[in-house]
Write a structure and sequence with these properties.
51% helix, single chain, 184 residues, 2 domains, 8 helices, mainly alpha
Length: 184
C-alpha cells in the first residue's frame, strides 16, 4: 500500500467515459494529468512557478480530433478546418517526441534529490509503486536525456537515438554528437 498523500488538482483530461479505453479500466478523470491552469489559483501553476516552464499547452486525448477518412482521390489543398486539425496533431506529436528529455530529467531530479523519501525507502520502490517502470528503463531515460537535450534543443530525438549517440557524446563531446546526429 502506498504512503503517498493525495493531491487534488483539477484535471486536464476529459471526464469522457471513452478515455477509460485509453487509460485502462481503473482510470479516474484527473488521475494521469494535471491541469496547468488553476493549480495555484490566479497566479499560475505550481510547475510554472517552480521551473518557469510554460506547460499550459499539453494535449489530452479528448482535445485531439476524431479520426476521419479522406478519399485517396482528394487532391484539394487543406481546408482551414483541416489545417487546424494538423496543427493540433503536430502539437501532440511534438510533446511526445520531447518526452525522453522531460521524463529522463524529471527522473534524475527525483532520484538524485531523493524526492521519493517521504513515501518510499528507495528510488526503485518509488519507480515500482508510482510509475510501474523497471529500474533499468528509468536509468536508460536518465542517461539519454542530456544527450537528447544537447543534440536537439527542440526535442526531436528519441531514446534509442540518444542511447546510440551517448558514447560519442561522452567520448568526444556535444559538438561531435551533434555533427554525427545531423550527418546521419
Amino acid at each position: 500500500m502506498s504512503r503517498r498523500r493525495t493531491l487534488n488538482i483539477p484535471s486536464a483530461i476529459s471526464s469522457d467515459p471513452e478515455d477509460e479505453d485509453v487509460f485502462g479500466g481503473d482510470y479516474e478523470p484527473g488521475q494521469y494529468a494535471l491541469s496547468m491552469r488553476g493549480a495555484t489559483g490566479a497566479g499560475g501553476s505550481v510547475v510554472a512557478e517552480l521551473t518557469g516552464a510554460d506547460l499550459s499547452t499539453p494535449l489530452s486525448v479528448a482535445q485531439l480530433p476524431t479520426p476521419y477518412d479522406v478519399a485517396e482521390t482528394v487532391t484539394a489543398p487543406l481546408t482551414e478546418h483541416e489545417r487546424g486539425h494538423l496543427a493540433v496533431c503536430e502539437q501532440a506529436l511534438h510533446g511526445f517526441r520531447k518526452s525522453v528529455v522531460v521524463a529522463g530529467k524529471a527522473l534524475e531530479v527525483i532520484s538524485r534529490g531523493r524526492l521519493y523519501r517521504e513515501t518510499h525507502g528507495t528510488f526503485v520502490e518509488y519507480l515500482d509503486d508510482v510509475w510501474e517502470i523497471r529500474k533499468s528503463q528509468a536509468y536508460r531515460m536518465i542517461e539519454a536525456w542530456p544527450v537528447a537535450a544537447a543534440v536537439s534543443p527542440i526535442g526531436d530525438i528519441n531514446e534509442g537515438q540518444a542511447r546510440e549517440l551517448r558514447p560519442v557524446f561522452q567520448e568526444y563531446g556535444q559538438e561531435a554528437a551533434v555533427a554525427l546526429y545531423r550527418e546521419v
